[in-house]
Design a protein that fits this description.
This protein is α+β, with helices and mostly antiparallel strands. 16% of the residues lie in helices and 32% in strands. The longest helix is centred in the N-terminal third of the chain and has 22 residues. Bound molecules: zinc ion. This is Carbonic anhydrase.
């Protein structure tokens, strides 16, 4: 009997190990990543991205209707753009959703007496925000991060006309394949990115991509800037088709129109 006991125990161990190895075989990750088209398009983001805010009541973008905005005519400007004339660009990334330029730390804005640091800018073609139902050819997002995961995103809309020297600079790093990165380490003056007229709409919303975080102060400049058709087309070729999220319900939110 004793002779048989050890081989039997060994057999039992082998059987147990085979069973457990099988049980622990990792299943292939089935999580689908969000996109702008098809089964993972914006209408499905809330189902795909569990624990996101994508189904929330303070989502972006929105359609801004002029007659529904609240004009505020204050002497005290709530927005102070304190960029240096030598903003340092670190690199450009094609992240599969947009073309994004990342900045070195150093530039910031003051908004309603809080500081937000310029992190990156990226593009949407055509625009995400619409003004009185009008969708612009391009929208530029300047993302700033504050304390406690709060953001201030400045949005510049663009319409087509003369070419923009700043866009010629941005696009000199294209084409970029999906997930390709190029190091830049150059400085540039971002002041020409803003429209001459500083009037802007403001409201509380969200990031327009998952996790659709609802802690974003939106600053949307009323006057569009001008870029050329070719500049829009070049960006378009390097980004997913129609990389914009559809209009979100405004619910009880108010949009202010800050006039100077
Ligand atoms: Zn964006």
């Amino acid at each position: 009997m004793k002779k048989l006991l050890i081989p039997s125990l060994l057999l039992l161990l082998v059987v147990y190990k085979v069973y457990n190895d099988h049980k622990e075989t990792p299943h292939k990750e089935t999580h689908q990543h969000w996109t702008y088209q098809g089964e993972t398009s914006p209408e499905h983001w809330a189902e795909i991205e569990k624990n996101s805010d994508c189904n929330g009541k303070k989502q972006s973008p929105i359609n801004i209707i002029d007659i529904n905005t609240k004009p505020t005519n204050t002497n005290e400007n709530p927005l102070d753009i304190m960029y240096s004339p030598n903003t340092q660009i670190n690199k450009v990334i094609n992240n599969g959703h947009s073309i994004q330029f990342n900045f070195e730390a150093g530039d910031s804005i003051r908004y309603h007496n809080h500081t937000y640091h310029l992190a990156q800018i990226h593009f949407h073609e055509p625009s995400e925000h619409t003004i009185n139902g009008v969708r612009y050819p391009l929208e530029i997002h300047l993302v700033h991060t504050g304390k406690n995961k709060e953001y201030t995103v400045m949005s510049v809309l663009a319409e087509e006309g003369e070419e923009s020297q700043l866009f010629e600079f941005f696009e000199s790093f294209l084409p970029l394949k999906e997930h390709e990165t190029k190091e830049i380490h150059q400085s540039l003056d971002l002041s020409t990115l803003f429209p001459k007229n500083a009037n802007f709409y403001s409201y509380g919303g969200s990031l327009t991509t998952p996790p659709c975080t609802e802690s974003v102060n939106w600053v949307v400049f009323k006057q569009p800037i001008i870029v050329s058709v070719e500049e829009v087309l070049k960006l378009k070729k390097n980004m997913p088709k129609d990389n914009y999220r559809n209009e979100q319900p405004i619910y009880d939110r108010e949009v202010a129109l800050n006039l100077y």
